[in-house]
Amino acid sequence: NVAHGLAWSFYVGYLQLVLPSLGKSIDSFRASHRNSFWGQGPQKLLILIPLNTNISHKLEEEDNYIQFYDSLPNSQLDRAGIQGRVYKHSVYRVQDENGKAHDCAVEYATPLLTLYRMSQDRRAGFGEPERRQQVLLFYRTLQDILEQSQECRNRYRLILLKDEHQDDAHFLSKTILKH
Amino acid sequence: NVAHGLAWSFYVGYLQLVLPSLGKSIDSFRASHRNSFWGQGPQKLLILIPLNTNISHKLEEEDNYIQFYDSLPNSQLDRAGIQGRVYKHSVYRVQDENGKAHDCAVEYATPLLTLYRMSQDRRAGFGEPERRQQVLLFYRTLQDILEQSQECRNRYRLILLKDEHQDDAHFLSKTILKH
Ligand SMILES: Nc1nc(=O)c2ncn([C@@H]3O[C@@H]4COP(=O)(O)O[C@H]5[C@@H](O)[C@H](n6cnc7c(N)ncnc76)O[C@@H]5COP(=O)(O)O[C@@H]3[C@@H]4O)c2[nH]1
């Protein structure tokens, strides 16, 4: 089951590595970016999971109430022979409907790009009808793994994006701000 | 089938992005590293695939005939909301049995770390006996995908590491030099 493996991969190869030090990373960002506006409460990585696997590489291309602000400080880790492999997150400034700015670390769940590409290539063995099921399986598997992870507690928010309001030009910013 | 999805993920999320520009990257490295010793012929990324999924994060920890030399120039790409995500390879200097140095871009296939971790966690649903089969499936699936990829031709070498000579302290350097 492809989505099951991709959820495990996303956890052991990424979230488990970056979430434990996310708080420190955001504190350091706030100290060097005096004009940034973060919410109250524990700082989390917002992870977007679109059911239709439609992913933009830059969030501002989806909704002009969203602007790229800066990157969090990079982490560097030696991984499987790659020395100093770089892990980074983008901070976006999201405007609400009153024009007020809110900053947050938000990104799409990268493995969904793989699900999308596989559904387009006959050799990969699954098509668009199965893809939606695979996204739901990815979401549930990831939820289960993360809920049992002490070291990742309170450091993430999984946001499942359903298709209904895709015609709203500010659907993404509104959704992000709800979280 | 976990390995099938991980092979696709490795291709669409990495090899397809980095291999087409590898030649240019190595040329630039050679120009700025006048003392480097590359072989003749097209420059490739050597990808180590150990059947037992035993992976070191730094190759010099496996064999002291191998030393980290430097990184190839970084690539930066916007991916799924992460702006300027960094992709890099490590160049290692590998000594042969006559003491002669050979430089090459070599790394382990990182998705094997996921296979290893999944085989250790009961929730993931497979154990050590299946893991070997999954590595072989990963290798064959990756081979098939890459063989049909025009843009990646001649830019990679998959090296399947079997277990027989693990007691030889210079097994890894000898294997790399054969390729
Ligand atoms: N957003 C995000 N930022 C990251 O830095 C990152 N690094 C990994 N991942 C995702 O986590 C999971 C586990 O990663 P792993 O390294 O085992 O496999 C990776 C790895 O084998 C290879 N790869 C990707 N980027 C790099 C890289 N920079 N250096 C080496 N290998 C890489 O290709 C696989 C698929 O990558 P992505 O399809 O981008 O998604 C990965 C994957 O779903 C990331 N996701």
From TrEMBL, chains A, B:
Transmembrane residue ranges: 5-23
All residue ranges annotated as the STING ligand-binding domain in the record: 1-179
Location within or outside the cell: Cytoplasm, Perinuclear region; Cytoplasmic vesicle, Autophagosome membrane; Endoplasmic reticulum membrane; Endoplasmic reticulum-Golgi intermediate compartment membrane
Top-rank taxon: Eukaryota
Entry similarity comment: Belongs to the STING family.
Protein name as annotated: Stimulator of interferon genes protein
Organism: Fundulus heteroclitus
Parent-record interval covered: 157 to 335 of 400
